[in-house]
Amino acid sequence: MFPEKVSDELAAQRFQMLEDIAQDLTGEVLFPTCFDLVINLRNLLKDPDVSLERVTAAVRADPLISSKLIALANSAAHADKPMLKEVRGAVERLGLNVVRSTSLAIAMHQMLQLTSIVEFSEMANQLWLHSLKTASACYIVAHRMTRTNPDEAYFAGLIHDIGAFYMLFRATKYPELVARRQSLKHLVIQWHEGIGLTLLEALHVPEEVIEAAREHDLLREAPLVPGNLKDIVYIGNFLAGSHFEWLFQDIDRATIERHALGTQYTALDDEISAHTAAMAAVLA
Question: What is the pLDDT of residue 135?
Fold first, then answer.
């Protein structure tokens, strides 16, 4: 057990972590997200006869691999083709062989990191489930209430908290923070959005998707009908239980309840839960 740190020492430690993250984001970005997904995808891609459909379903479940493949599909080699903003199109454009080799390379790198993040496995998996439900909520809201491509909305919802995943991974380098989970949780909630936006830019995610992730945790009135992808991600995040993050930001429950979503959104809960379960089954 580490001795208790005075507030100044903890503040200095947190600042050092944020400074190190800023430095990290200037280079190539790779980090683990969901342990079960990495293992499942690694095993899936060992099969030379695996179908394109199964690979697409598995890839869609991981924010980092999805980001990498979309960036690759939109790279200079495909500059003469329309910009893609969702995983299905990226998989179709790249082809199974490229998807298999690229995804496996990323997954193998993730596997090498798993022992370092095991201290945060419970927190990471809770975050993962929240991201998965947000993605499903975005998909259903887009499909039922807008003309936005549901797959694009799913991708935007999946990666909206990617900065939090990265912060958990980076926190493993600081033993004192590992021992003080509550302090770390506050740090992640306060900083994950800004770090996530920088991370998405480093991953070359389309600007519209980055904008959708911006201010997803800023409590506000939801529109009666979503007007754009940013509205969809905010609503999806709310439907997935974002209130716990607002409570950590010292926003009281009464204020949160005053901004509660209307029945046009909450009526979708059962469909969202079913979609989330279906996506989670990919990991089984």
Answer: 93
